Each structure stands twice: as C-alpha cells, then as structure tokens.
Fold each of these.
Amino acid sequence: MQVWETARLRMKVSGAAEYLLVIDEIQKIDNWSEVVKQQWDKDTREGVNIKVILLGSSRLLIQKGLTESLAGRFETFYLGHWSFAEMESAFDWTIEQYVYFGGYPGSASLISDEERWKSYVKDSLIETSISKDILMLTRVDKPALLKRLFELGCLYSGQILSYTKITGQLQDAGNTTTLANYLRLLSDCGMLGGLEKYAGSVVRQRLSSPKFQVYNNALLSSQDEETYSSAIVNPKLWGRLVESSVGAHLLNHSVSERYNLYYWREGNSEVDFILEKGDKVIGLEVKSGASADNAGMGVFNDKFNPNKMLIVGTSGIPYEEFLKINPKELF
C-alpha cells in the first residue's frame, strides 16, 4: 500500500496524466490479490490512471490470486523458459549446448562443471519449485508420489506412457485420477506437461495416455546419468533430446500464443506433435538421424487432412532454425 501511495503522490506532484507502477515477486506479499484489488478499485473510483504491472515467478500462486479476487481487472502475459535465441544471444551458446543444458540463464556459468550444474538444477530449481510453488500452496496428499512422478516424467520426456504403466513403476501410486491431477499441477508450474492424444472432432477420452514433455530440457538432462560429451555422440539419446527440446519450445509457446498441442498415435503410426489453433491443424515430426522415415505422417494426413505437415530435422527445417521461430508463424 505504501508503494502504491508513493506512486499516487509522485503522479500528482509531476502532473502526469498517467503513471506506471511495476511490482516484482508479487506472490511474496501476503494476501496480495486482495490488496491489489482494494487499491485498484480505489484508483478507479477516484479517476487515478495508474497502470499496474505485476510480476511473479510462481505461476500457480499468481493464477490462484487472479481468479479469486481480480476477475475482470487483469490481462495475463506468460513469459516461458528462455529460448535458444535468448541463450545464444546472452551466452553465445551453440545449439548442442542448448539442447542438452536447456534454458535456465542462472545455470549458464556452471556448465563447465557438469556435476555442479546438475546439483544446481536439482537443488536450487527443481526442489525449490516443487516445495514452494506446489506443496506450500496446494493440498497434495502424497508429496513423495508427486516428486517421483516428476522424476519419471522428466526421464521419459518425449515418450508416451499409459497411467497403468506409470502406476507399475511408482510405489503407492494411488489411482490414475490422482496422477493426472499431479501432472496438471506440475504443468501449471511450468515444469512437466502431459500432452493428450489428438482425436480431431471426436470427443477426446478423459485420462488418455499422456506424452510426457518437460518445459525445459535441463529438467531432463540434470536427472540423467549421461553426460554432455557422451550424449552428443549417442544417436538414439541425442535424437530424444532434440525431440524434447522441440517439444519444450512448442509447449512454452502454446501457453503464450494460445494454441493446443497434442500428439497422435494409432497402431505403429505416430506423429510427434499436433498443433491446433481455431480450425487450423499442423502435424509436425522431428527427425534428427540419417533416416527420415515418416510413414505416420502419411497416415495422419489421409485421416485428418491437416493444413500443413512439417518435418523438423533431417530433410526438413533444421532444428536449430526451428527453435528460433515463434510457432504461431506456422499457422
């Protein structure tokens, strides 16, 4: 309130017609949404034109506060994890470094000591996010299960697992609804998503087998025993990392650009990512090896007749170029 009053006083003294107030880490203020609502409504009644920008690192808490108290008073802008273009510009990273080490700027200075880098990501970023952004803000009856689901989901990023298979790898797994709810919490915090299967105009079945997808490849690499030097010469592992980095790029932009992101699989036919915005549909397959077999794309094209079918990687758009574009430009 004191900061807001100071802004009003400065605005009055300067004779400005409008004023900009920026508050960072808003979620650290107790009952922040109620205070903001009170002060905003006061300015509205008195005709004071203060424009307010609220910044917060806890997406879950920000969403909760906005929906509970500030209905009709806000517009949201999602700033996702750093992109390849940003990491390249800030730290002169190569595409290989970005694919493996992901997009956490705070960890960039540690990549020369990979053991230290992995510890930093796990202890300072992952554990802090789960403990403060989820467990302290939301009722989670089985916190150990949520953490194990996150670890498993990261290691299987880019792969499809049924909830039945997931429960077989988790102790005290509970039911599939619990796992699905925990996965949504992890997604709301910008850590781990679960893509649904694309079904066209057909009503999608609830709790279909999710395709795990991290929002940042650092979450995958930091929990894997492989090192950067070994991963880059392992075609199978590197291909999975490339697909995951493309998926992370698509997933982050799906929030800010408001398009739906799915996968598709039927029998042995599969398409890695399906983008849907309005009535437009794009099928996208990631290929990083010498082989560019994409039989699944033909099957998908015949069945759904999408607007576009694209290949990222071998014989298609180079993935280092794709990771620099905004996916909304594809529509």
Note: Residues 114-135 form the longest helix (22 residues).
Amino acid sequence: MLCNSNFYLAAALMLLSANALAQTKRYPLQSTKGLRLVNASAEPAALNGKKGLRVTLSPEAESSASQTAAQRVTGEAFVVIEGFEFGDGVIEAEIAGAPSPGAPPASRGFVGIAFRIQSDLRTLESFYLRPTNGRADDQERRNHTVQYASSPDWPFFRTRKETPSKYEAYVDAQPSVWTKVRIEVRGSHARLYVHGQEQPTLIVNDLKLGAHAKGAIALSPGPNSITYFRNLTVAPAPLDKTR
C-alpha cells in the first residue's frame, strides 16, 4: 500500500509540474510580434553579441516629455505583452539600459519591468534599474540603483520622501550591460532578484495595488534612455506557500 501511495504522489507531483510548465510563457524578444507599443519604439537589435529588442520612447513621447521629477522615471512608455494577464507568479528577463546620446546629466538609463498594469495603462506596479548608479562614487546614488514604484499614486519621489530607503536598494549594475532580473509576486508581496543571486536585492511587502490585483506585463523604458530586453519568461503559477 505504501508503494502505491508513493506512486500516486509521484504521479500527482509530475502532473502539477507539467501543468506549471504548460502555463509558462517564453518570449525571446527578437521581434515585435505579439507586442503592443505604447508611446514606445522597438526594433530587433544586438547588445554585446546577444540578440534582443531595443526599446526607447517614441520620438513624439520623447519630445513632449518635460523634465519634472515625475517624468524622469519609467511609466511613460511601455511595450505590452499582448493577451496575457498576470497576478501572482514569476517574471524573469535580461535587461540593459543607458542614457541616450545627449541626455541630461540627471539621466540614469532607466530600464524595468511593469506588471499588473490596468486597462488605463497608468495604474501599475514596477521594478526598475538605474544602471549609472551601480558604480557611482556617491554612496547615496548607489543606494538608489534599484527601485519599486506604483503609478500613479506612488512614484519614487513620494516613497523616497515618506519612507526613505524602503523601496530602493543597491546592486552592482553598469550601463549597457545585460542584467538578469527575477521578480516573484505573491499577493501583496514581491521580491526582486538580480544577477541570479539566491537572496533578493529588494523586498516589498505592501504592493500598492493590493493582494488581488491582476493586469498586463510590459517592458518599461525611461525617458532619455536606450534600453534592451531579451528572454522574457512568465510563470503565473502560485509560488511555494512555505516561503
């Protein structure tokens, strides 16, 4: 009887694993097929010998963007993954960013991933990098290398003022260098992992859209930035409840 129990348990685990794999979506991001451009321009391109998608703000969006604090962050432009709704699960990708030629000195090469994007394309959660901060000589800048933000109510300058350091952290990063990121989302909790590290770089325990929010996923460039994305993987299966 014990052997039979073990057999059925193993079969059940294999079935669960197969279902999880079936739900996992992989996007090489070597073309714009299946993507919706919102205030963004995108084209296949290679960076450091690896193929991906080069994404910038559209010329119209770039020319009309003012340089207020609210508009120097991601959230003005997106490349939305069509036909996909995300609530809980795991998002992985390789991303890179750098200031565009002639960008203002305050430009950081913003590059990130937005998720749970609502139909208004304004309400969302996101994690992003400031690649030029990663090896800056100023420690305060280094402390602002990675960021969590939620538009439109919780941009970085509000959280930085009201809860300094809670939604930002340091990680080693460089402009125009591929950086692997992994975002784990469960309810109102999220963790950002960078460079394949076992420990999270940034932990957020109060996602601003709440525990049950669902929405689209998008590649998110910032103004005055040239960004690259490749190998996006989305696994919507719930995370291990014991974590």
Note: The radius of gyration is 19 Å.
